[in-house]
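U., I forgot to send this yesterday:
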Amino acid sequence: MKTVADKAGKASRGRTNYRPARANHSTAVPYDALPLALKRAELVEAGLAAAGAVAYEWYFDSDRLSWSSAWPTFAGQAGTAAPADGNSLWARINAEDRALRYEAMFGGDEGDEGDGVPFKAQYRLSQGKNAPGFEVVEDGRWYTDEVGRPHVARGVLRRAPISALPAAPTRKPNKRTPVPGTLFKITEAGEGFLSRHGLQAALGREVGQSVRHGGEAGFLLVGIDGLANVNHAYGFEVADQLIEAVWSRVREALPTPVVLASYTGNKLGAILPRGTSASLAEVAKSIIAAATTLPVGREATPIPVSLSIGGVALPDQANSAEMAMFRAEEALAAARETPHSSYSPYTPSGAREEARQRNLGMADRIVSALNDRRFHIAYQPVVAADSGKTAFFECLLRLTETDGTVTAAGAFMTAAEHLGLARLLDHRVLELVLETMMQRDDVNLSLNVSPLTVLSPDWIDCLKNAVRTRRDVAKRLIVEITETVAIEDMTATVQFVDTLHDIGARVAIDDFGAGYTSFRNLKLLNVDMVKIDGEFVRNISSSKDDQVFVRTLIDLAANFNLKTVAEHVETAKDADLLASWGVGAFQGYFHGRPDPVLPPPRSAKKTKASRR
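Result:
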């Protein structure tokens, strides 16, 4: 693997007329007599100094940071030593810019295919309390080790011209609380916001360091219990404030250094580089004690808070980032089985092992069905409340088993997501939906996508290519995403929604109300409609609690001029009640069951007559 100096040296070949300045000693070795490697190194050093730049090499395991000799010229501050490690450099980066740098390095989905992962960042660098800082541009690449973990970064820093200063971001993260889908880092050197994509990289780095150096680390997953009840009882604005207050208390209770990642609106992940099995339990106890009752809102209403925490010891209980996250979820689920705030360390389970074996069996069924093309679509109508006409059909995935029986998606989608097969299913659904829409220009169809599909560019690229010459198809397509998907990585989801709008498609939030909904999220996402979760609709005529909550959801959607669809509408009484509150459309058995065959197209004459 070539170093920055190697590459720069290669670029300098043939410049025999250039000679860097050297001391005028009679005993100096003639330049032409120097070994070729030394000539190249000297040329590189001189070139960097002349350009006001400096090169570095940063090893992630040891955090050791090495610089070229041009640092004094680059820094322009006598006596200011070059940072000796990554944490020292982090301390010198302006606190508001640290997130930008980390995001530039580790925020993408690109992996190291052998030539490293390129990155470019621009930020402000300080020289100390009484010294002026300056703007720098960093260009580099980071490389992985033999098992795919980030290992070393090599790059060049140069001073940025004033004209190159970046414009202020249109959406700046709140400094105090991580917005959903972001990573929040605390070290002795300070704090800054980072992308959630960095969580796996950070976990992988901790696991790798623990394995290599025989140390221990820990991963905690903290969940706020009963947020739906808080939404219901106090409103969404108070729930937002409660989350902010809880995360603030959690940060105060955590030791440093620590890396914090917002999983979703009500889950926070914490990586403790110095954590042990025993210390994880103590830290969890401190977190729970710090956030039991919090004053929230204008009147500082005390709201009781219940936290559940799952913990995983690294590397003993997880030898990869993926395993650490999966097992932390299992531990969190175990903690939530108790009535109130509790901590549960990960423990092996025979029942979970049986579940894994069932999942493997399901994986075989899914892959075989994909290969045999035994997946098909069932179409369920979504009916307009005012006219009673079908506004669109939701496309529901069905699996035809080898014995001819049909299995609904609910029986296999969870396993597919855990096994990494959901994206394959999403591609198959897209293929089937587009095939139908190309043949039937009289129907509007909707489809659901999984979390990984939203975060991956492959699916959206396929859609863009398919409708490039058929924009009419895109205009009749509605893509449904869940609230959990939306807030898992808000930046990626906003980009996903914007891309769909660019090609003419519409976007809906599915199961609206089941997750954590906020004014901020709806404003950022800019979706076209919301589909109210059927769990709140199914018995709405007889449940006062559901009536209050659903009306709150309808009002929230109305604030953003969003169309509303009520799911699981089963009776005329429910439909009439929902229509009186302003719900725009219904979906449920009362208006139509899923059917593998679409209704035949209406004739032009019949269509015209039906509009009278």
